[in-house]
Structures are given as C-alpha cells and as structure tokens.
C-alpha cells in the first residue's frame, strides 16, 4: 500500500491505496541543476526515466533533462523569500509530458507548496497526473539555496 498525500501536503496523508495497478516509474530523479538557479530562472536536472500510467498502459520514456526549466520570468523571489515548485507528469489521452507548477513566493518559512488543486488547474481539469519532484529555492541576502528531491510520494492524483 502506498500513501496518498492530502491536498497541498507532500507528506503522507491518511488515505491508503494500492498503487501497483496505477503507476510504474523508473528514474526521473531530480538533482542539482547544471546552471545555477536565480530569482528569474529556476532549473533542475532530471535523470532519464520511464513512466507507465495503468491500467490504460500509457507510457513514455523521458531523456535526461539538464536544466529542466521549472520557472523562467520576472523575479520569483526577493531576499528573505523562498518558493516551492512541483514537477509532475500528466497524461492527456495517452500523451505524457512533464509540467512544473510554481507556488507563490513567501517569507522564508511561510512559503506554500502548490496544492493538488493548483496542480490540477495547471494540467487541466480531469487530467490525471503524478508527482515527480519537489523543488525549493530561497534567497538570503545575495545567496541562493536550492534543494530538490525526487518525490517519495509518487502517487496518482485521484480525481473526483
């Protein structure tokens, strides 16, 4: 049995479900980006991997991604702030793709991880998706700190 995280919480939640029939993931591990991230360009490297959505059998092999673009645009954070982003794989009628969903920046310690509802809105109503990685970037003075983790909570978002 695998644990499904509660809405907006990447930590295990109270709902239990056997995911063996829903998901097979190999690889797609997040690690330090090749190019250092900044307030305007958040990157992460991803190892090659394969995702299989069951029971439909939709699958995709992903090449390694150097500097997968988590965020690129106007300054996401300023000194004293941090932000989280979730990287997910979505399945639109058998076409699997990686998507990043960035949460609102906040004072360090008060940042908010994008909720399941936020991710669902980003990937599209009724589109199934799986967590792949959680990325965090903070800025203290002029020093950026980035962490990323491959999600141990790789679960299919349960629709409905």
Integer tally of domains: 1
Q: Which outline best applies?
A: globular
Category by helix and strand content: mainly beta
The ordered H/E elements are: EEEEEEEEEEEHEE
Percent of residues in helical segments? under 10%
Tally of alpha and pi helices: 1
Residues in β-strands, percent: over 45%
Report on the architecture of this protein.
The chain is mainly beta and 160 residues long. It has one domain (2-150). Helices cover 5% and strands 52% of the residues. It has one helix and 13 strands. The chain has one helix at 116-123, and strands spanning 2-5, 12-17, 23-27, 30-31, 41-46, 49-53, 58-62, 65-72, 81-92, 95-102, 106-107, 129-140, 143-150. The strands form four sheets. Strands 9, 10, 11, 12 and 13 form a five-stranded antiparallel sheet that branches. The protein has a three-stranded antiparallel sheet with strand order 3-6-7, with no helix packed on it. A hairpin with a 4-residue loop joins strand 6 (49-53) and strand 7. Mean pLDDT is 81; it is low at 1-20 and 153-160.
Write the layout of secondary structure elements.
Layout: E1 2-5, E2 12-17, E3 23-27, E4 30-31, E5 41-46, E6 49-53, E7 58-62, E8 65-72, E9 81-92, E10 95-102, E11 106-107, H1 116-123, E12 129-140, E13 143-150
Antiparallel strand pairs: 1-2, 3-6, 4-5, 5-8, 6-7, 9-10, 9-11, 9-12, 12-13
What keyword list fits this structure?
three-stranded antiparallel sheet, 5% helix, mainly beta, disordered N terminus, 160 residues, five-stranded antiparallel sheet
Brief account:
This protein is 5% helix and 52% strand. With 160 residues, it is mainly β.
